[in-house]
Amino acid sequence: MKDSAVMPDLRSELLADVRAPLEFALITPPGWARFGVDEAAEKQLAGNMEQVFRDRGQPKQLFHQRAQLHKLFNELRRRNAVAVYLPVKPVNDVVLPVSIAILPAPVRDSAGVDRFAQRLASRGAVSSGLHNGLQILRWEERNAVPGENGAHSLAINHLFEAPTGSGRSAALVTASLLYIDGSEGEEFTESLEILLEAIVGTFTWRITS
Fold first, then answer.
1. Residue 35: inside a domain, yes or no?
2. Which superkingdom heads the taxonomic lineage of this protein's source (predicted)?
């Protein structure tokens, strides 16, 4: 969910003060649950990751893994993340190694989204589009999982511009997938990417009077 490719100026912008709480809706499949950025979510994600490595027969360093997850959740809290979505039930006896985090991004208006997109584009591929007249940015980040030989994470990021005049910050939705070396092109991994894209595609702003 973090990216070493996002440089300090982008980090500073994403960590800046935000204005109004995020109010949104996201539709997930059966067997998923919404968590706060809390101990319950951290415990669920740790259990999911442990099961994934066990099923793959991969060596794991549980203490180090939990320490890394704890650092991740501390970072999410520092960035005022508001929700984490996780699978809580296996699908056909398979634990899905995925998660989705939603947090505010202090991009105030369309011009701010444009500036943010320019910074991203200078460091890698970023795509953009419009939905109901609001901008959406998309970019990916791949990183090795510290302490886990052959394990990597793919983060699929979307930034959703807030409705004009809402007083809200933009929303950053980060969908993350854990995968093992050599499995990038496997049908299972690709199906998980498609699933995450489909879930993120249901994001909508909740309109309140």
1. yes
2. Bacteria
